[in-house]
Amino acid sequence: MQITYEDIFIHGQVVAENNLYKHYHFPEMLSRYDSNFIEYKRFPSLDQFKEAESYLREYHLKNGQMHVKFKFPENEEIPVDLVDYLNLREYDIGFLELYSILPNQFPYVSDDPDIEIQVVSEKNLEVFLDLQYQQDIVFGSNFAEQKVDLNKRIFKAPNFMQLLAFYKGIPAGAVEIIISENTAEIDNLGVDEDFQKKGIGSRLQKFVMDTFHDKTIILVADGQDTPKEMYKRQNYQYHSYQYYCQKVEDE
Fold first, then answer.
1. I need a labelling partner for 197 at 20 to 30 A (CA). Which of 76, 140, 205, 227 fits?
2. Which of left, alpha, beta for 59 (phi over 0: left; psi -120 to 50: alpha)?
3. pTM for the whole structure
4. Pairing outcome for strands 37-40 and 67-71
5. How far apart are CA 239 and CA 52, in angstroms?
6. Whether pLDDT at 54 is above 90
7. Is there a contact between 200 and 233 (Cβ–Cβ < 8 Å)?
């Protein structure tokens, strides 16, 4: 199965599109950079980028958004003149990596009586929301509060599943799964800092593998962060990369 970034779910709607890019906007969570951005279909010239940059900045400022973000074509390096401009304008430049795995290729994970994985339901929703809030508060209270509302909407969505991990009865980790016909996408996999390196992340993934054994499991990892090394050790297959840039404007 050919996996591309087209298979990755985006919280946001396309509000403008031309032959050069798509503009995604998510009014329900304006502070979420990954939901409010421009994605290029092909690389722009420097003048075309500057024009789109002005357009997106003006659009965001009207909505009280202080950031601009751009994603570039899959598996293509950013042209040198554009890199020079982005550095001059003090953009953060990074890249994402796309991975997939068939559930039967995931390494064996033994049971651990100290770790319990639960599907989020009405009974444990507040516990899940509180754990997520504590993880999101580092990005600011506004972001964390908007994320609570997003998680409540996700809870009601038929194509999502949320999982909660407990370590000796204490909420310790969570993940959400985005379900489509052929794939199940792992998103927002996180383990509380106090409970890391206890196998919680692996058991959350194993639950996904067992639940969606007939689908291809996909995820996007930060190309500059350490979790991608874990995915490689767990037999995930690397597919492609995608560069992005973002900048928070001075108020």
1. 140
2. alpha
3. 0.93
4. parallel
5. 29
6. yes
7. no
